[in-house]
TrEMBL record:
The protein's name in its UniProt record: DedA family protein
Similarity annotation: Belongs to the DedA family.
Short name of any one Pfam family annotated for the protein: VTT_dom
VTT domain mapped to chain residues: 32-121
Membrane topology (UniProt): Multi-pass membrane protein
KW Zinc (keyword) present: no
Organism phylogeny: Bacteria, Bacillati, Bacillota, Clostridia, Eubacteriales
Bilayer-crossing regions: 20-45, 51-74
InterPro entries according to UniProt: DedA_domain, VTT_dom
GO cellular component assignments: plasma membrane
Major localisation: membrane
Keywords: Cell membrane, Membrane, Transmembrane, Transmembrane helix
Cellular localization per UniProt: Cell membrane
Keyword Transmembrane helix (UniProt): yes
Length: 122
């Protein structure tokens, strides 16, 4: 059985080996919250392992590219895409209708508060 401490250390080493691309990827896909990646990257900058400007650039570009990609997928794919291919993602038309009704009623609050929940924000 793997020790959680060893897993975290190996994950951090993997990001460090990927360097700036690892920071970009983590913030773009957001499989690890930015609240974890950026302090770790800051530590590497303080140790001289990475350049400050490189970390800022990779983090900024990754933090914008991921949500922007998802926005464009939703904007230009949207409901027609989900109606056609949703069955492959286990999404039923009834679920889409319920989601639409929920967002019509609570959309602003959900969008605002969802930005504070890691994994949901993107």
């Amino acid at each position: 059985m793997i020790n959680i401490e060893d897993f975290i250390i190996s994950l951090a080493d993997a990001f460090k080996n990927l360097s700036y691309f690892g920071i970009f990827l983590a913030l773009c896909i957001e499989f690890v919250p930015a609240e974890v990646v950026l302090p770790l990257a800051g530590y590497w900058v303080s140790e001289g392992d990475m350049a400050f400007i490189g970390v800022v650039a990779a983090g900024s570009i990754g933090g914008v590219a991921g949500p922007l990609t998802l926005y464009w997928l939703g904007r230009y794919g949207g409901r027609p895409f989900l109606n056609k291919y949703g069955k492959y993602f286990f999404i039923k038309p009834e679920s889409l209708d319920k989601s639409d009704a929920f967002f019509e009623k609570h959309g602003g609050l959900v969008a605002f508060s969802g930005r504070f929940i890691p994994g949901v924000r993107t």
